[in-house]
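Why show two proteins at once? Because comparison is the fastest way to build intuition. When a single record is shown, students tend to memorize it. When two are placed side by side, the eye starts asking what differs. So, the first record is below.
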Amino acid sequence: MKTPSRAAQLFTIGYEQVSSQAVLDTLSKAGVDLLVDVRAVAASRRPGFSKTLLAAGVQSREIGYLHLRGLGTPAEGRQAARSGRHADMRRIFEEHLATPTAQEQLAELTELVKSGRKACLLCFERHPEHCHRQIIADIVCERVGVPVEHLLANPL
């Protein structure tokens, strides 16, 4: 593990069972300056979580928004997660991470964190242990030498 940059931080957050306002409040309170959307499909039936509305919401808090679609879980992995087959989701996502696009975007994310950005990975699942964002965070944190902090917004 590398020596950590004093300013580098990585957070994660899920929006299951929470409002967009609660997520925005949590991001602001933590000092996040870049929200990194790691959903393959940045659309949601939940109000405020589709790409355009989410980007506008974080911008109103002076937080940047970046969608790294290549770090999203493929459709078969999302289906496995919805079915509670978390080991299958993990296997599918780890195979996906070997693709050139995923590797490029993982390198981009690593450089953003190294540069001192206080980035937060966003996906749906409330608890990171059942979400691919935990896998991404583990890789980036190992590369950069910083711990991850999992944020939990207040539930509805």
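Second record. Ask yourself what differs from the first in the token line.
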Amino acid sequence: MALKDRLEDDRQADERVSRAGVAHWRQRLLEEINLDELASLTMAQRRARLEKVSGHLIAREGPVLSAGERAALIRRVVDEALGLGVLEPLLADESITEIMVNGPDHIFVERAGQVQRIDTTFTSVDQLYQTIDRIVALVNRRVDESSPMVDARLPTGERVNVIIPPLSLAGPILTIRRFPRAYTIEELTEGGAMDTATALLLASFVRARMNLVISGGTGTGKTTMLNALSAFVPGHERIVTIEDSAELQLKQEHVIPLESRPANIEGKGQITIRDLVRNALRMRPDRIIVGEVRGGETLDMIQAMNTGHDGSLVTVHANSAEDAVYRLQTLASMSDVKLPYEAIRDQINNAIDVIVHLVRGPDGFRRIGEVAVVSARRTEKFALKTAMEFESEPISPDRVVRGVFRHHRLPGLVADRLLAAGESVPGSFGIESSGGGS
């Protein structure tokens, strides 16, 4: 059944229920079943059992409903008892990448890069709070006025952010971000996120142990690209991944995933990304992959790239490839180790080799906007050479972004590193002459 049809059935069922609604039938269901018996069943068996009992209850005590309305009501009751209520059909729809709940009456979803409002709502603010409590309880946390912000993760991997009054003036706000599917570089190329020559070049960069930074704004697909590029790390290497919420799905055998931990309700026990980066250096990694740097851990990551962990990958929020370099410098300066800007710049020049910048167009489509190589070294000012850029055409009336991927010659030093590692430079790029011409 399509999501639209499911939501419409749910709405009609709610309108036809003459008694206390879904909450009433959920309470009757809990009174009817044996909780000890239910605890011994698998999740699939629990759902089947509750659907059967709910069907008997509604048939015996409920209003006259059509077959579709009755099935929708049973599903809503069981979703309330086992899952996340009105959010369950949204989580079951794989085309939805983000769910945004702005209070009980306003629910938005992102599908194919476009945000749209849906008709379904929570019956009350209390029901929304119950759903939030159920989510945060999964990670042994709580949300209340003394702790009004929470980050959590569903058992299926979705990232969850909650913020409630008094910080939120619009009521409880719940944001669920879908756990991204692991796309291969071939799938991304076929989908138009890059062209074949660029895919071959990026694969060569990874195999040649060049340090890559993936930059872009929120929702541009940085984690998806990071996951795709990590597939080119040789299988015999020891890889340590570090993330706030574990999303990477590496296929290599020797992978050690690490995940940060927030403070508990007493404000203790926090383990930050920086703590994990420092600890990773003692774990003899060949490469370190950090889901995102956003603070003082940036300096530790840069130092790791400078001290024998070539081929590491990291993502950072930035508006362009050039902005990514300066943002790394700013983040590194947030470390408790106070270094002059010039010293941080020198470390970045020596550590970062390639910046892959991602963009999301007005049509919601995500693609590589630029691939740039760091051509400055040591004490020189930051300097980037564009290896590839997406040149877009004027937006057409259908709001679809069209354009071409332009290739440029690689600096000689970069090409030499690829050739020394046994890699080749795709013919459409070429190599700069010794005079630096293009």
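One difference worth noting in the second protein: The domain at 185-420 is CATH 3.40.50.300 (Rossmann fold).
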